[in-house]
Amino acid sequence: MAEEKKAASSHVLKERPPQLVQMPHWGSFHTPRGYDYLRVKRGQTAGYWVCRFFLDIAAFLATRIFLGLKIRGRRNLRKLRGGFVSIANHVQDIDCGMVLQALWGHRVYFVSIEENFALAGVGHILRWAGAVPFPEKLELLAEHVKAMEEALRGGSVVHVYPEGVLAPYHKGVGPFGSGAFHLAATCQVPVVPLAIRQRGRRGLWRILKRRPCFTLEILPPLYPDGSLGKHEAAEDLLERSWQAMDAALA
Predict the structure, then answer these.
(1) 222 has which bridge partners?
(2) 0.85 cut: is pTM over it?
């Protein structure tokens, strides 16, 4: 039992990892108190779906043509009703485009580090596309969590990269932060793992690409254990999600 508990704890992210990829920024961004995370006013909602329309087209072209993306397991989303938390390994600069295609038709809130909102030329686009900052100041965290819980209860998807870092073309799965799983356990919604794995180039891809192609597999939803308390249910959900991702990426 002690060995199992020790093994499980190795899958929990202890501290925020350093970013491996540095992107160009203009100035800085810090989440203000009272930030409008949900953007659900009529004009904002309309703007989101207009932005999504063009983003979905761009994501389809970019990921299919340049990354050779294939999506598997869409059947695992068909029976879901209401909101859920999705998670994915973060292995490519534009893998958010892969996620958008996998979650087509859903309003998605991407939890992102604050630095991304100061990215040169794309900070405002990120906001219109549904990205929400994860505040660095602990006193603002409660507002963020409350908004994400409201999004889930309203039927939207909250997407999290639980490893907390972009690791280009990394093949394994690192330890997970617990935030996504606490959200799911608190709101009693499932976690849907999206496993992005690499595959060898074949046919024309051997000429067009030097790097591997990608397959995104939508894994079966994992539900919180209702017999456990919220904290224990979150830990259990994290462990099961990690195991599912690890098996899919093996």
Answers:
(1) 191
(2) yes
CA 152/CA 215 separation, integer angstroms: 27
- Do residues 181 and 191 lie in contact, with contact meaning Cβ atoms separated by under 8 Å? yes
Q: Is 190 or 212 the better-scoring residue by pLDDT?
A: 190
Collect all residues with Cβ–Cβ distance below 8 Å to 128 and sequence separation of at least 6.
47, 48, 51
- Ramachandran assignment for 169, one of left (phi > 0), alpha (psi -120 to 50 degrees), beta (any other): left
Residues in the chain: 250
Helix (H) or strand (E) holding 207: helix 205-208
What digits encode the pLDDT tens for the residues 184-211? Answer: 999 999 999 999 999 887 766 566 667 8
User: Which residues lie below 8 Å from residue 72, measured CB to CB, with a gap of 6+?
Assistant: 215, 216, 217, 218
Hunting for tokens 């990921």 — which residue is that? 63
Instruction: Let me know: does 71 contact 216? Beta carbons within 8 Å.
Output: yes
Closest CA to 71 of 104, 49, 35: 104
The Cα–Cα gap between 129 and 48 comes to 6
Helices (H), 42-196: 42-61, 75-78, 95-102, 123-128, 141-153, 179-187
The answer for residues whose C-beta is within 8 angstroms of residue 238's C-beta and 6 or more apart is: 11, 12, 162, 176, 178, 181
Question: In 10 A of CB 5, how many CB atoms?
Answer: 8
Q: What are phi and psi of 233, to 5 degrees?
A: -65, -40
